[in-house]
Amino acid sequence: MIVLAIDTALDFCAAAVFDAGTRTMIAHETLEMKRGHAEALMPLIARVMKASGLRYLDLDRVAVTTGPGSFTGLRVGISAARGIGLAADKPVIGLTTLSAYVAPLVAEQQEQPIIAAIDARHDHVYFQVVAGNGSALMRPAVAPIEDTFVASRFGALRMVGNAARILADRWPRNAPAPAFIDPRPGPDIAWVAWIGAATEPDAAPAKPFYLRPPDAKPKAGFSPPDARS
Q1: Are residues 112 and 130 part of one domain?
Q2: Which parts of the chain have pLDDT scores under 50?
Q3: Which of 25, 85, 188, 192 is 20 to 30 Å from 104 at the Cα level?
């Protein structure tokens, strides 16, 4: 199965063409950026597709991160994925940024639970806790950093995400120390593709996964075209 993966949820613009059947990364590119996803994404996808030697019609599906993350970045990535899927008549799979973060740790088949944490600013994080086998222990949420400490009841956690170091530095001294800390700034685009290949399209629509409203709100009386999303 050939998957085009797209990730614009955080401070990156990334795309990859991945062969899930052979577990081969055919082509990929990642640009680090805090702004400018809208201008960068489509040229980046075009370069990745050219490097892969494949046509859009050769794809089996498109996978895209749906959040939590940058509101603007998410809409750019999801819109691109939907457009490509519609034009090529391919299913589009949406997956959360948190699930993409935990996937490689779940694949290690270790017993320790995992907490994925993304910086939500203002001393808050988006987070999720799963068991070593990937089953949910705490559902995705946004909360003050101190509220994540309750996850210490599951034992020594493996921490991953761009807020992993923030959590580790503030973790209570009377709680089990983190078993592992991976403060990577974004999920591995290969795992975005891999999850996309393994997920049923009907179970994972490509729509924004927001855990809180945007910080910036439109002026009174102004309604943007996508206000109902």
Answers
A1: yes
A2: 216, 218-229
A3: 85
